[in-house]
Amino acid sequence: MKKIFFWLVLIGSILVILGSCAKDENEETTSSCATDTTASGSITVGSETMSGVYLSNCYTGFAEVAGTQVFPSDVKSGYMALVVTGDAAISEEFLIYTDAACSTPSLTWKQGRTDFTVGSASGSNYAVTYKESTIKIKPSTDVAKSYMETFASSVGISVAFTVGNETSITDNGDTKYTAVDGTPALKKAIIKKFKKENNLKYSAEEITVGTGGKQVLYNAFMATLNRGDEVIIPAPFWVSYPDMVLLAGGKPKIVKCSEADNFKITPNKLKKAISKKTKWLILNSPSNPTGVSYSKNEIIKLSKVLAKHKKIHILSDDIYEHITYDKSKYFTIAQISYLKNRTLTMNGVSKSYAMTGWRIGYAGGPKEIIKAIRKIQSQSTSNPSSVSQAAAVEALNGTQKFIKTRSKEFKKRRDFVVGSLNKINGINCLLPNGAFYVFPSCKKLLGKKTKLKSDSEFVEKLLEKANVAVVQGSAFGLPGHFRISYATSMQKLKIAMERIKFFCKNLN
Fold this sequence. Notes:
six-stranded antiparallel sheet; single chain; 3 domains; Aspartate Aminotransferase, domain 1; Aspartate Aminotransferase, domain 2
């Protein structure tokens, strides 16, 4: 947060200074603009060296900058100084005021960094690192207080400010660049998680961290697929799987899994789908969109088929691991010892810890695949958000007690939704044992009597007539169904079920 604010302020301030110092021939300048360069240390940035104190006296012209919300809305003037106190230390001061004369303060901002170093250039940017940063903020007005609290919240930091009092924040460097595929602290937490919960042992070189689970999957396909390579995808499937494969030059091989098989791929169907071009099998358990998960026995049966095809890799999407019901014990395919060295086990914090917007996914797998993923990521997004990684460490290492409590609540909603749907004529819904989705069939409501030709038309009319939003099954590769998410309040679910019931009743 501090680095972001510093650069915003610095850039904005420079623009103001330049604007206030610039003078047209027919224009008078009312701003004061003075600098002082008394040397007391130096920092080298590339081929440039900064030394001493860079000072800007009270200057006006803040109105334009304030209007861009770089600063609190009541700012009229300001003062800034960049102070270099040694080769490894730097401090910045920003004082902004509610009047043009720099007499009535709005916000005081003082920041010092220790072990400050500047690395080599990357494009037009320089890598800046520091061991620790301490920032002291003193809001003098309610406007400044509100501004700082909003700003802190927007970057994931919860800090309460008091008007007239100084608040100190110490930063341990979580706002700087990290290793491309995850911080050592986060990798350590992931390794611990895999060992404790899945009995899987990984080294740091076998762990990758991406900007959400989606990026991990995308990177894996981009790193491993050659044109024409086939990826077996059981349907219904999460909508992004086939497109990811296509973007990587591969060929999705869709295997439709019926209600009779609980929407799961069987050993026989897997055997028939395998060809000489098969590179990956995707297993998503619990599943999006069906909510069903594979039992240990079912995974063992699939593994016996895969044991005969040693060149096939398995991508296990375990993102809903912690949302399971009915005393089902979670089992992932990498726990089959002879498959671990060719399985990429993907997970993340979005579903388990409700951290969707933080965008942190991770995976454990073979070193050669992890290394290839790292190369792909280094040329795209580079490292995931450093702040999000720090938050993920806390999530993984913190208490996990809430998971069982939450699952109990989700189970209540699942039971209600499934029970309500199965009471509606023309609707049939299996009881899933994980995630927060149900995948009911609407096939009996399609045809001459209702004049509805497809699940897509059913979904459109349901939204149009009943104001209930669901997703058509054809989007997930299995027409004749629709997906409902029950990750919402019981009150809203009750209203939705009543509306669906009324809608279906009046189709005939």
